[in-house]
Amino acid sequence: MAKKGTESDESRLKKKVATKLSGHENPEGDAALRALRKRLKREQRKRRALALRKKHAGANKPAAEGAPAAG
Length: 71
Prior knowledge:
Region (Disordered): 1-71
Number of domains: 1
Structural class: mainly alpha
Mean pLDDT: 82
């Protein structure tokens, strides 16, 4: 099953967790819900780590390379 290109994994997992959580009498005991939450947290960690890596990599480059001269 192919995923839609427009919807990210994180937003898709958030929707799944929200639908599972609504009307649930014991969310702590549900193994499927726990697995969904773990997958969501993993995606969030990956996104944050990538953003941090990009931020640190961009800090090492001089400003002259980042902005080309208009001439």
